[in-house]
Predict the 3D structure of the following.
Amino acid sequence: MPESETSYRQSRQGRGLDYHDRFTRNPRRRMMWKIEQRILDRALDQIHDEQAAEIAYLDFACGTGRVLAFVSARTDTATGVDISESMLEVAATSAPKAELISADITLGNSPLTGRTFDLITAFRFFPNAEESLRTEAISALSACLKPGGRLILNNHRSRSSLRQRLVRLLTLGRRGHSGMSHHEVTQLVTAAGLEIEQVAHAGVVPEHEWLLLRPRFVVEWFERLATQLPLSLLAENLVYTCRRPVAETVRQAA
Ligand SMILES: C[S@@+](CC[C@H](N)C(=O)[O-])C[C@H]1O[C@@H](n2cnc3c(N)ncnc32)[C@H](O)[C@@H]1O
């Protein structure tokens, strides 16, 4: 984990189209994204079942608009926020109806101050970010959630994944410690006053995007099946649906 305060904030500057294309070009990324879409669809079904009123949606660290474009097809309003202009340029094309904001809401003077959302997503952000940035981001996001609202975030670099376990074994513990553990995600989320409602998983087969197992249809069949099995401890990508408790308002009002 880089120690510099600004390193992850700066890391995606100047990137865009190449990042976006990888979700269609790379077979593993494409497969993971399909599974994530199913997870997001299930969450949206639940939100629609529960909520008749309009759904206000925010995608934090929206990047090129991959998640923003998909989710916003089922919400009434959609806002994407990111600090990289080059990523946002692609988002303007992939999610043309969404409001796009170029800002760092983890710092003071956030343009989102006073606005709240029913649903927030934050994909491929937390395990990449430095610890201080993770804490700043989760508290900024928690403040933007309506009571009962949901934050769906993922840890696409789970430290307990079969792949990281193998890397640790093969390198005698020298490598294979990147990303976050389930315990770290739980602590981060609960410290921000949120409850974990559900954890879905994807990516059990220990392969790398550039070192793929074949035949692909067998890997993809197994990975689809694995999402239904209790294998989250071995999965690379954990998707957390978190909720801001409704009771909080009752306690505050009392
Ligand atoms: C790996 S990309 C993920 C993009 C998108 N969420 C996805 O899953 O495709 C991470 C994004 O986080 C953005 N980012 C980093 N620090 C940020 C911050 N402090 N506030 C908002 N966005 C930030 C980067 O600019 C980059 O676009």
In short: Residues 92 and 100 are 7 Å apart (CA to CA).
